[in-house]
Structures are given as structure tokens and as C-alpha cells.
Design a protein that fits this description.
Helix content: 40-55%
Strand order of the largest sheet: 1-2-4-3-5-6-9-10
GO molecular function: hydrolase activity
Number of strands: 10
Low-confidence stretches: none
Pfam family, one: Abhydrolase_1
Protein name: Alpha/beta hydrolase
Keywords: Hydrolase
CATH superfamily: Alpha/Beta hydrolase fold, catalytic domain
Strand content: 15-25%
Distance between the termini: 33 Å
Mean pLDDT: 96
Length: about 290
């Protein structure tokens, strides 16, 4: 796997942000406080630790980089009620709360996998006036009973990952994580990913996937720049999903990653960061 030269780990600035219905969200910030703002939103069963290469690389040296653990994940609060994960308005309020409390001025929103649909939830409620651009990374913008554009890397492991049996869950999560990349993760990334995923309760995983999601209405109205970053060998969210997004969104352009799976930011961090910085400049993010 291609890796970059990571800087010595910076001590992040840490926030507790009350989101929708007061759910406490764990948020961290790195980089230049006066730099152009980027908000990173991770995916299903993950956590903000997945962005290690971004927060310890050149991206944070030039930008104000913020990441959150979405509700039910990482160090954020984990409501017991399934409704807390199935109401699109609550997800929208979570993102709005982070933008407001941290005073992020027209940031670029980056959504990986399920994080893409969370960004769409925000845009549907609050519009695009407060943001500069969007980067959809292996983004799941449709989730329905037919599993359109969803591949075996996810489908083959969902039942086990949502099982209350710990041994079953560990096995499924390990298979799921192996499917996320074409080449094996380096040991630090693998250990972090496995631990972060296992913090997420199986009922939370199930509640997220019980939602019916269709973001076409949001995509059709976007006028801010949208970069669609997708691995050509993604077996979780298939490349056909990205093709659909580009066809549905007038302002979207695709960046295809050959020989890369579901995590371009992890498998090709130098290229990913460079293209994200280009998007920041194109969108004229204030700083």
C-alpha cells in the first residue's frame, strides 16, 4: 500500500458538541486555526481515527482539518434507541452543530461511504449556502431494498457485523476491513481500524443500515463543486454508485483510482490530499 511521510503527531484540539436531540459528538481539530476549513465525516462502523494520514500529513499543515465521530461511533454518545440513527434530520443537525460551534467558514465537507449520505442529510435541511464544496469518497448515496450499487464486500459481512455474538462480530468486521482495501493495510492502520470498528455496537450498525436513503434530490440541486473520489476496485460501494452520482449531480466530477478499493484516502493518501487541496483552492475556501 502506498503511504506518505507522516509528521509527528500533533496534539488535537478536542470538543464536545451537542448535536441533534443533544447527543454529544466527539470532535477533533488539527492544523492551522487560520487555514481553510475541511470537515471529515467517516462511514459506517468506523471512526475519526481513519483519517490518520490526513491529519498527520501535508493536508493539516496547510488547512484547518476537523473530524468527528458520528453518533454511535468512536467517542461520541451512543443512544440506545434505533430512531436516533434513522431520522435524517438528526444527522443534519449533527453536521450543522459542528459547523456552528467550531465556526467553520464555508468549509469543504468530505464524506466517506455512509458519510456521504450524512452530508446529503445536512444539505437537504440546511442547503449549500454555508459550504464551499463537497468531496464524496466511495460514498453510499443510495441504500434500498435492492442494494443497488452495493457490493459483496459489504453485503457478505453485514449479518455477522450486526450480530450480538462477539465472536461472530469480530470475524465479520475483520472480513469487512480486509475488503476495504486492495492491498493489506499497514499494521498501525489495521490495528486502529479493527479497534475503532469493534467499539461500535452491533445494534447501531444495524440501525444505520435500516434506513432507506436516496440522495438524488440533493445531488440534482448542488451548484458548489463536487469531487467524487472512487476506487475502481471498490467491492463495498461499487463504482456504478459514483457513475450514478456524477450523472445526477451537475457540478460533480469524478476522480477514479485504479487498483484501489473503498478507501482512496488510506490507499493513496498523497494523491487524495493533493486533489482535496486542489478542491479547496478551486472552491476559494476562506482563510
Amino acid at each position: 500500500m502506498t503511504t506518505d511521510q507522516l509528521r509527528p503527531a500533533e496534539t488535537p484540539r478536542i470538543y464536545a458538541v451537542p448535536g441533534g436531540n443533544g447527543v454529544r459528538l466527539h470532535v477533533r481539530e488539527w492544523g492551522r486555526p487560520d487555514g481553510p476549513a475541511i470537515l471529515l465525516v467517516h462511514g459506517w462502523s468506523q471512526g475519526l481515527t481513519c483519517w490518520r494520514h490526513q491529519v498527520e500529513g501535508d493536508l493539516a499543515a496547510q488547512c484547518r482539518v476537523v473530524a468527528l465521530d458520528i453518533r454511535g461511533h468512536g467517542m461520541s454518545e451512543r443512544p440506545r434507541e434505533a430512531d436516533a440513527y434513522q431520522d435524517a434530520n438528526l444527522w443534519a443537525m449533527d453536521i450543522a452543530a459542528v459547523l456552528d460551534q467550531l465556526e467553520l467558514q464555508r468549509p469543504v465537507l468530505v464524506g466517506w461511504s455512509y458519510g456521504g449520505s450524512i452530508i446529503a442529510d445536512y444539505l437537504r435541511v440546511f442547503g449549500q449556502g454555508a459550504i464551499a464544496a463537497v468531496n464524496l469518497v466511495g460514498a453510499a448515496m443510495i441504500l434500498n431494498d435492492h442494494f443497488d450499487h452495493i457490493g459483496p464486500g459489504l453485503l457478505d459481512n453485514v449479518e455477522g457485523a450486526c450480530s450480538p455474538d462477539l465472536t461472530t462480530g469480530i470475524t465479520a468486521v475483520r472480513h469487512f476491513l480486509r475488503a476495504c482495501t486492495v492491498e493489506a493495510m499497514d499494521p498501525d492502520d489495521w490495528d486502529s481500524a479493527l479497534c475503532t470498528n469493534m467499539v461500535v455496537r452491533p445494534d447501531v450498525r444495524a440501525a444505520l443500515l435500516a434506513r432507506h436513503i436516496d440522495c438524488d434530490d440533493v445531488l440534482a440541486k448542488l451548484t458548489v463543486p463536487v469531487l467524487v473520489s472512487h476506487g475502481m476496485r471498490d467491492t463495498l460501494i461499487l463504482p456504478s454508485m459514483a457513475e450514478h452520482v456524477v450523472s445526477a449531480c451537475p457540478s460533480a466530477v469524478a476522480s477514479w483510482y485504479d487498483d484501489v478499493g473503498h478507501a482512496p484516502f488510506l490507499e493513496r493518501p498523497l494523491r487524495f490530499d493533493r486533489e482535496l487541496l486542489d478542491l479547496v483552492r478551486r472552491a476559494n475556501v476562506p482563510h
